[in-house]
Design goal:
The structure is a homotrimer.
Chain A lengths: L6 H5 L1 H10 L5 H17 L4 H7 L4 H15 L6 H14 L1 H20 L4 H5 L5 H12 L11 H22 L9 H14 L27 H13 L7 H14 L1 H20 L4 H5 L5 H13 L5 H26 L8 H12 L18 H71 L1
């Protein structure tokens, strides 16, 4: 945790490998260039720790912007302002009004956390902003009053400012099990707003969501494979409520900037969601629209390397969790639709919490202490360090035990030798006295 | 906590202030009269500790009545039998049958707690009765079988007697976070009874509650300002399910008897609820009927001085909580209506628990340990005492440090002086020897 | 806990009593025969510990079968492979396809627990199988695709394999209050599957469950008393989703094999459920079908001797819990029907957890530590042993105190005697000196 410039070397190891392939056994000049390149990469990948430290000395508004950008990226567990910037770019590409609402949400959530004197480190990591951006965005997405309905900013600001309160309250509960709050505050607050006003409201009407009441028409011949493949980036975009595949693609880039492992699991999760949708006879439209993907994306990221150290077992667990999350997603969507509500990210929260509460006997599924969670690559290094430490400790212990055993053996040998010497000496002595006695005897007999 | 007669002097400080205004700088005779008056007030305001102690020696039925009356008032967090008596008067004014059901509920809940050997102090404070009165009252209010349907007393008694069991079970959970159970047992049990029987039941039919399915007609011109103002006391009355503004007024009086701070926050909460209703486009009828007020009343009381020590920050937090509670009230009412259920006081419970789970970095938002909670005025004195104690301890510590520093300085001075004296002495000695040497020298030269 | 052959002697005390009645004061030969009989009974009653120990040395598939059979019986809290076998017989009598699904569910749940390296002792006790059998059975029962729809095995296997994950996660939470997870994993997973697919699904349609929307026709004259009595075994059968009274009868036998107390409470619970149904104006059809019984059966078993040590107070508590559970059952069934879901065993889980969270001041309601729970008869012996130990400890303490008092008295006596002797001695000495002085005096006067 001490070398802020190290993580990225690891974080971008895939790129290294690719370069290595192009020029196996390069010259020293090339090695130097590579080192310089890695050094450069380390400045804007991972959690941009150097940048964050530099920011601490800047003036308040600039730091606030840093926090807001990190907050935007934290939805995907990414603590990186550059990723946040790219994400905002993707949002603007999707819809100006939504992007504005998202920005307002993040801003006011962060301000509220400052007013309530929450932990400064957490605020600086954007942990109080990510619920805000989702609240702002999704309230705009599900509003039935159309874009640029400025009154919406009022409940938006109120709900965003409630985020740190709900976060703090939930953290008081979840911390007992060393669990994060995920996007639960967002889920609670957006559902709260939507169901409090509802579709039939004069001021803040919501889009009409109704439960399914007849068999959907599923004809496999009508399946559009191109759209099906497109649903993978769309699923990633739907994490922020966006259905534009380009926006989804931009989000993938933003993930890759910070952590390739996160990026890979995001794509994998979205694919698992798509497959689950097909398996459970979902209408193709829903699958194309990415509704089966976004929860699985988040669940797969959370389990696959973020809160567990990535091993093969954990990778399999992450895929299982994604499947479970897809199932749960369908279930929750059906239940919520009875109240005119969308599923939000409840399925992700519940499935990820379930899988994080799991306790197993194997060491290969290692849950990181919440305070040590950063990003998959750094987590992995922490896990390896811990393993190595344990190994050396064990080896040390074994060595000591062996030493002690040997010493004991040696001591025994010495003792035995001493004993032998003693015995010999005694024998000699005895022999002497016997001799003397004999001598005396002989003397007396002589006399 | 040691002076049972002190609280009320503080608790009624507003009255004192008023008297002071009438006669600034009164004579000694007047001061004596005032002291006597305060002493008198102290006997029936606050939690009537003197009366409670006196009661301990009375025979069982009288004590049971005391507990039942305190239980009736504990719905508003008031531990005062006189307030309870006034509340029963208000209930009788509203509806005889409801009042009877409320009384039966409180009685059997208290008896059940005695049978289950619950904490005697809690029973004596009415903490096992308040859920009972609400269960009894609201089961009568929401029954569709009409008044004086005597069979209703059967489920009423059963559910009242379940109150201590559910209370105890919930307390086992909530106590882990040092939280009260509020009216959760009432919410659970009344919803249980209502949804178990439902509207279409031959023996215990419930009133029909249906979800909103069309846009309500809201014309601001039709707003009746008189009714809007009246909704403030009605909102307080609705805590007990009463829509009579006079009953609400009587309840305000009962609150004022025990604790003016509680009373002020109750009125404030009801007003916040009314404003929220207008802001969220609620039908005017609901607002007039006090449905937007009662949860906010309870939430505002709970946060504003009851479980937090009252400071300006806490006062603002209480208002925020009331707004949040109104929002939540609308949401929960919409959800519950799908099951034919009223919102009960779920919104209050959930919002107050959320705000009590909040952790902040500021000292000005101080959550009292649950065991120390009495009533706002006494809580405040506890908080001030704690503050003063901390201050004196800090001052003491600082004084000690200063003393030590001074002593160290003095010691250094003494040491320096000693050192100086030593040096001088040495020098003198040296001078002496030098002189002697010189003398010797001179002697030798003289010779 | 040390004598595996003892439990059954107690567990079958009722049979003993019956035999005693037949031949009061039998000969020694008869006594020997009885002892041999009891010894024989002890091998297949209780938790069959001897058999379990013998099994440990057998090859894997046989042990797996043992675990699966124990898992089947653990639904009723019975840890006995013979009971499990009898239960499977009952299931086959009901429906081949359901029995197959139940077997597949138990098997894969147990395998999944092995893969996830869960506690081996818990797996061997069938604690990872009972949710699996319920998941498998009820998914088949509520499937609308008809029997022998082989595709159903796919979600069946997936959901069964999720059981240990959900169990482990819930146990992480419940263990904080030393509570079991009951059948919560089954409830969660079956509801998940049913609501995720729903009635309108092309691949996995569920039976249509709709909320009641009109007054049921209840004519007491139409009450069929024979069917009403039959509803008691049917209610026990409905624990496994079976409506065949013979199947229910077989289940009663399987309970009696392991623990007569469990068996008695199962019948009692089913009867309480039936009475509650009549009291709450349920349609007679539902009561005949056992829908009012199965939750009460489980709740009554759980409270009556399984998790509390059986005393008269606990027996009454178990009956109260059964009534509460019936009420809750009606409520939950009404709520779940809005989502097209059955009540499953949610009512049992919630009511039993509530009653286990109860804390009282009386010693007669003793909740066993979760790790010490086995079966009612053995629990009772544990409780008695504890009581006896406490008693002897108390007596010991009192004896010690008495001894010490006596010794103190004796010591005091000795001290007093010593003191007296001293005083006397002093007096004597004094007398002597006085005499001497007198003598001296007299001497001097003489002179």
């Amino acid at each position: 945790m001490a070398h802020p410039d190290l993580p990225s070397q690891n974080g971008n190891s895939q790129e290294d490998v690719q370069e290595d392939r192009v020029q196996p056994g390069g010259a020293t000049a090339l090695q130097k260039a590579r080192a310089r390149f890695l050094k450069g990469v380390s400045y804007f990948s991972g959690d941009m720790e150097v940048f964050g430290k530099w920011m601490e000395k800047q003036f308040f508004l600039l730091r606030l912007l840093d926090w807001v950008l990190r907050g935007a990226a934290q939805v995907m567990f990414v603590n990186n302002p550059l990723s946040g910037l790219v994400i905002f770019a993707g949002l603007i590409l999707q819809n100006y009004w939504w992007a504005l609402n998202g920005f307002v949400g993040t801003l006011f959530a962060t301000i509220s956390a400052l007013l309530l004197q929450q932990n400064r480190g957490a605020i600086a990591a954007g942990l109080y902003g990510y619920n805000g951006i989702l609240v702002g965005l999704l309230m705009a997405v599900f509003s039935n009053a159309g874009d640029w309905y400025w009154w919406l900013l009022l409940p938006n600001i109120f709900m965003s400012m409630m985020c740190p309160i709900v976060s703090s309250a939930l953290a008081s509960i979840n911390s007992r099990w060393d669990l994060p709050v995920f996007t639960l505050p967002f889920n609670i607050l957006v559902c709260l707003h939507m169901v409090a006003t509802g579709h039939y409201n004069n001021y803040f009407p919501q889009v009409l969501i109704q439960p399914r009441s007849e068999l959907p028409n599923i004809t496999w011949a009508e399946l559009d494979v191109a759209k099906l493949f497109m649903s993978v980036p769309v699923g990633i975009g739907q994490v922020y409520g966006c259905d534009n595949p380009w926006t989804g693609g931009i989000f993938i880039i933003s993930l890759f900037i910070s952590s390739p492992i996160t990026c890979a699991h995001a794509v994998l999760g979205s694919a698992v969601g798509m497959v689950s949708g097909l398996a459970l006879a979902a209408p193709f439209g829903d699958i194309y629209f990415g509704l089966w993907g976004y929860n699985c994306v988040l669940a797969c990221i959370a389990i696959g390397g973020m809160f567990y150290a990535l091993t093969w077992q954990v990778h399999l667990l992450a895929i299982t969790c994604a499947f479970f999350c897809a199932y749960l997603g369908s279930a929750i969507a059906n239940i919520m639709s009875r109240f005119g509500l969308p599923a939000c990210t409840w399925p992700f929260c519940l499935s990820a919490l379930t899988f994080l509460l799991l306790t197993t006997g194997t060491e290969r599924i290692f849950k990181l202490p919440l305070a040590k969670v950063t990003y998959p690559e750094k987590n992995l290094r922490f896990f390896w360090k811990l393993k190595k430490q344990e190994k050396t400790e064990k080896a040390e212990k074994e060595r000591k035990e062996r030493d002690e055993q040997q010493r004991a053996v040696e001591e025994e040998v010495i003792l035995n030798e001493k004993e032998q010497l003693k015995v010999e000496l005694e024998r000699m002595e005895q022999g002497k006295t016997e001799n003397e006695a004999q001598e005396v005897k002989s003397d007396s007999t002589e006399e």
